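[retry 2/3] Phosphatidylinositol 4-kinase type 2: previous attempt timed out, resubmitting with same input.
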Amino acid sequence: MEKSNTSDNTSDDDKVENEEEKIVEDVAKQCFPPLPDVTYSYCNPTPKLSNSCGGSDTASDETIRSIPSLSSRREKVPLLARMSDSSITHCSFPGDTVYNDMFQQAEEAIEAGVYPKRIAQGSSGSYFVRNVKGEIIGVFKPKNEEPYGHMNPKWLKWMQRVCCPCCFGRSCLPLNQGYLSEAAASLVDEKLQLHVVPKTKVVRLAAPTFNYSRIDHAKAQTKQRIMEKYPNIGRHFHRLGLPRKIGSLQTFVSGYKDANCWLAQFEQEPLSEAAKVQFQRQFERLVILDYIIRNTDRGSDNWLIKYVPEDQVNGEQVVDVECDDKESSALIKIAAIDNGLAFPLKHPDEWRAYPFHWAWLKQAREPFSDETRRLILPRIDDLDFVMELCDDLKKLFETDQGFDPQIFEKQMSVLRGQILNLCQALKESKSPLQLVQMPPMIIEKTKEHMSLPQEHSDVVVIDDAYLRENGYAVAVLEKALMEKCSYIVIEPTVLANQAKCSISIGNFLHRTAVLLGSATVIIVCYFPNLPIVWGTTCGTSVVSCALYWCGWSRDPCSHYQVETDKQKLEEMWKKNSLSFLINPVVLRYQNDRPRRTFQMLIVVASTTFVVLKCFKLL
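[retry 2/3] Phosphatidylinositol 4-kinase type 2: success.
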């Protein structure tokens, strides 16, 4: 009886499940019309439609299936999806056939089951990308597996993030922009025709060997099961399989070794004169690249050298396709890799200076060659070229979902300052060592402030003022203070906070001198037998007065006070048509002479009163 009951229960459950499947299929047919026959692949989102001339392109059993791209459902894509990472669903580079072929080979290899292999070295998750034959053709660095990314598979960085979060990251670098830095370094290399950076671009790839979270694996398995059980519903998924990871894909250069290996060998076996000249020219190009992008991670282990002795050349050209160099007899080539920690938003100003390690080489003591000066100087000395370079970099950085225009402008201000220093060094025929010893500069792109009416021309507005990073704003503030403008409006930045703090210190010294001077007179009158008390108050009053007159009165801010009256501020905003996202700091001009005179009278009177009292006691 028990067996018959269990069998009846299982049969009833099967009936319920079959009825549920029929209901789901009926609903799916009504809500989702059937799609044409499609062959799905793992990486390529472009569907292959069935052949209308007879036969069809069917997928094999080993093919991992995915869903067609969003192009077939374009009406559901939002118009503002350009700034999202998910908008880059398929990568193609029609303007660069060599790189596009390499990328297509990588996708085909992943479809065939030849997955990227993780690189054991380094502090981030980086992978050797291979073609169908298993040959390494590129290096892929996903965004979320960067040294400070949340999916970094290296346990040392995980330990650092968990155990020592205060020392995690570099304050001068924006977070999670390493892949953009890699591609931007390649862009700068291409614009300056340095040919030392292997071609690098931003792509999207997906492979099971990448480091994914459990949620991503669970979602991929769930979609696969739905696709197998309910194909009419599953075929409407955006794609099957693991999600694509955005990152930088750099062309792999073969025949290169770490610079440490060759530099040690060059010390034991000196190069020939022709090889020395060639190496010096390549080294100067590396210096120019690193200095412009302000690479904070250029050691001897992350730039490569390819050296072919003269007796092994045999009249053949040793030219790298990746570098696209036009030299006909190159014996030595340099490849600048690992450019992910460049383009800082400020110069390093903490306990770690991130120096250029090539500055200690003997090649850094040689002045820049005439060939390098003729190649680089006409470009970087042209303002239009620098502006075009910044615009191209902006187009690249805008593809990131977390793009911040203010942070990018800071990065470009550092880059422009580096270019200005480099331009001066090339004109003066300095060496790379002398170049890195030049004081760092920042050129800020200033805004054009609105022109105020003539009757309100005494109001000065300073936008985006940074004390250490915007010398122009500091100069504008100093000029406005010296000219004693009625109102100075400063956005709440470091410069505004310093001016506000300086005024607060002046007010504190003034109030201390006046209050303690007045208190001294009262204490002497009512407590004449406490000379220690009124002597201390009198001395403090005199010291505060001396500091005020000798130090604070020489500060241009001594003639200003911070305006806190909200009604006056609102009237000023309406009258001058001003608007701010955050309440700015407003300095109001106030003649300091009456206050200083009153302070001096109080201090002199209290001091005289104390001196006379002391004579009486003696």
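[retry 2/3] Phosphatidylinositol 4-kinase type 2: The first helix runs from residue 2 to 31.
[retry 2/3] clearing retry counter.
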